[in-house]
Amino acid sequence: MPTPTLPVVPPPRTAIPINNRFAVSAEGKLRVVFLEGQPVMEFHQADPAGRDLVMVQLCEHGGLGEDQVARAFDVSRATVSRAKRRYDKGGVEGLLPGKRGPKGPTRIKEDKEKLMISMARAGIGKTEIATRLGVNESAVRKALRRLGLEELAVRQSRLVAEELAEAVGQGESEIAPVVVQHDPEVAPAADEEECKTAAAEEGNAQPRSASTIAADEETRGDEAQEERTADLELPVAMSLDTNPEDRSMDRTLALMGLLDDAAPLFGTRRNVRSAGLLLAVPILVAHGVFADAVKIFGSIGPAFYGIRTIVASFLLMFLARINRPEHLKEHSPQELGAVLGLDRAPEMKTVRRKIRRLSVLNKSLEFMRQLTRRHLARKEGPKLWLCVDGHVSVYSGKRRLTKHHVTRLRISLPAVLDYWVNDERGDPLLAVTGVPRKGMTKLLPQLIEDLRNQGEKRPLTVVFDREGWSPEMFAQLDAMEDVCFLTYRKAKSNTELPRLPVRTFRSYKGEVDGQEAQYELADNGIYIDYGRRGKRLRLRQITRRRETGDQTHIVTNDHNSNVLVLAHRMFGRWSQENFFKYMNEEQDFDGLLTYAVEDADGDREVPNPERRKLSKKINELDEWLQALTREYGARALENQEGRRPTMRGFKIANGDLGQEIREVTGELDRLKQGYDLLPAKVPVRKTLNGEEPQQVRVETRRLISCSRIAVYRAESALRELLRPHYRRWRQDGRTIIQSMLQSSGDLEVHEGELRVTLASQSAPHRTKALARLCEELNSLDTRFPGSDLRLRFAVREETAVS
Asked: In what order do the strands lie in the sheet containing 30-35?
């Protein structure tokens, strides 16, 4: 009996033939090899080791030549030969990519060894030497031990530029490295990394007044002292350049890889544009923005614009309302550099490159959490109030992003959805980018758990709108300790909401957050069902009645707080809406700043588009069927019984219309059955024709959000400092602060101080308020980050009002 053979099946049309037996085809991101129409091997396009294994097997066992395989897989013949040699030598493990970089211990070359000796004799630590030379610390330690110089690099000492220049003059180094200079009042640390860590871990300040920001040492003890001196512990960078407008030496050092951040170097300059931006520096320093950035991001490689400088550039850009890197082309780099202590501020390409460099580190979430911890530590009171809401930024690029409903445009568009968390005053706490699958109902429990893990133990109440309505989530929040929620009651329509009689309302009046509050409220209890087993949750319903008679229902699980406070907090949620409006108008809130994308969650379920298509056809057929039925009925009414006295005769006479009705009815039933068989939701990747879903890069967007949060808080803190000195601080505070930040002024370096003399404002009372604000900021005794210059602010005497 002959042996049965498999039928020869032709490979897919898209397959590329190798010879008369083999072919290779692309199936999404997989590459499949066919033997006489049957798939026999596959590998992922991002797996070079898998590709090499397939090529070796085709050569060794498939009888193919190296040229044939190279053409089929679009590689060179040398690549195929190399894969065969590696497989013969080490099998499958030999095809795996090896560790990049040097295979043996790092050795310091002769030219770098001279620099190492120079820095060791200057008292620089091994960690700093290794960083500047671009080698491992162990290599520096072994080389110093071999030369008998290890004991010279065990501590960080203060070294001025003259000592370094002397070392250069002795021929030990052609170009001297930049040395970190510490404040003489601070005890030297055993290692610079310890100094950086100690400085970054220091606390921060209160924004409401100068005395609060500085912290009263008599009442707050050692912790307040550590917070007050956090900026003093930041390393002071030294520079061999003496001319602030010529930083050629530092740029040369950065080019040689011997500089990781340029020291701020100020000089005397008149009428510096936007010198008022320096008003925000004491607040940003007190908030720990610079210390946290240095601690978390560390060094971003040898560069003239290091981490401290680039963070300062980001913050001052947003303060100056330069909301996109492209807008830097409209500003003079020299003018912006004068405020930063540089000859030139970073330009558009540099800023974009630094954003990409920071996003690669994947530390933006840690940075935002640290900023959040500091903000919560500054907040007074036994309880936290958090407002949570989503904000949609429309995407106009060419990539296929998820669509979100844009409320202001009343349409669904490709967009980026961020959830923002603000406090009761509207100040941003954090932003969540990369939304979980079920939106706010999934976000809120995770958010609260994350805050608890960060050490926040105070009772808190989350306030949100109807988007977060979920009885199951309410039960989950109610089960958490010291957690309450506050939201509007939701129903399918307004007619389903209860309407309370007028006699149940009472007038409540009082003061909340320094503002008069008056509402007509009704306070009672309700039950809502949740879960599949019909469980019930008891909640508190607060109903507000307006003068027009309209009623708004609020629900909460807080059964103890004052009804007036709860109502005011719920309706005060508009502070967050005002934050969104302000950011849209002032900081280009909807601007994405980058169109870089990354793969999104392909398993996220979305409504099945096939059901949507069928639903449209069903509706069209249903309308057509109704039209045919109406026409059939009209003909029945117009039937002349003298000609067609029986129903049978009428049906025969209108058989064409009846047949069409039967066909449409049958097609409608068939479509409805197909509609019911389709799943309601499918993974999003199944809706993209084999493509992977994408989203705007989360790291980059979160970095920008961190900068915006820091800037907004700084403006809020400046407004609080202005509060005792400006009557309309609540209405015009941010406008006045912005005009002060945009003020021109003179810069002068004098006896360890950077004196900033600002121009007068548009009105005498505003000039007087600016003078008082300068006094508040001077009391902080802040040093410009990376410099030993104390910031001193004043208003020009000829225009100041006493």
From this structure: 16-17, 22-27, 30-35, 38-44
Name residues of the chain where pLDDT drops below 70.
Answer: 1-11, 13-14, 98-107, 109-111, 131, 134, 150-235, 435-438, 493-495, 690, 798-802
Amino acid at residue number 437: R
End-to-end CA distance of the chain: 116
Distance CA 394, CA 530 (A): 35
Q: Where are the alpha helices (DSSP H) in 361-394?
A: 364-378
Residue 322 CA to its chain's centroid (Å): 18
What was the pLDDT predicted at 99? 56
H helix intervals, 678-759: 698-722, 729-741
Contact of 402 with 688, CB cutoff 8 Å: no
How many CB atoms are closer than 10 A to CB 590? Answer: 16
According to the model, what pLDDT value does residue 223 have? Answer: 45
Q: What is the pLDDT, as a whole number, of residue 107?
A: 63
Contact 493, 466 (CB under 8 A): no
DSSP string, 28-51: TTEEEEEETTEEEEEEETT-HHHH
Which helix (H) or strand (E) covers residue 753, if one does?
strand 753-758
Residue 264 amino acid letter: P
Structure confidence at residue 623 (pLDDT): 92
User: Rounded to whole angstroms, how far apart are CA atoms 285 and 499?
Assistant: 53
Which CATH entry fits the domain spanning 107-177: 1.10.10, 1.25.40, 2.40.128, 1.10.287?
1.10.10
CA distance 348 to 331: 11
The answer to whether the 16-95 and 107-177 domains have the same CATH topology is: yes
Q: Which fold has domain 16-95?
A: Arc Repressor Mutant, subunit A (1.10.10)
Count of all residues that appear for the chain in the document: 802
Cβ–Cβ < 8 Å for 142, 200? no
Query: 708: how many CB neighbours lie within 10 A of its CB?
Result: 20
Structure tokens belonging to residue 589:
């809130």
The DSSP element (H or E) to which 100 belongs, if any, is none
Q: What is the rounded distance in angstroms from the CA atom of residue 222 to the CA atom of residue 243?
A: 40
User: Is the pTM value of this prediction over 0.70?
Assistant: no
Among the listed residues 369, 423, 427, 373, the one whose alpha carbon sits nearest the alpha carbon of residue 204:
373
Rounded to 5 degrees, what angle do the CA atoms 421, 426, 431 make? 25
pLDDT at 224: 44
**Burial track 430-469 (b if 16+ CB lie within 10 A, e otherwise):** bbbbbbeeebbbebbbebbeebeeeebeeebbbbbbebbb
Where does residue 677 rank: exposed (0-12), middle (13-18), buried (19+ CB within 10 A)? exposed
Phi and psi based region of residue 237 (left: phi greater than 0; alpha: psi -120 to 50; beta: remaining):
beta
Distance between CA 274 and CA 314 in Å, rounded? 15
Domain boundaries of the chain, sorted by first residue? 16-95, 107-177, 385-596, 609-678, 711-795
Query: How many whole angstroms separate alpha carbon 463 and alpha carbon 467?
Result: 11
CA distance 633 to 666: 20
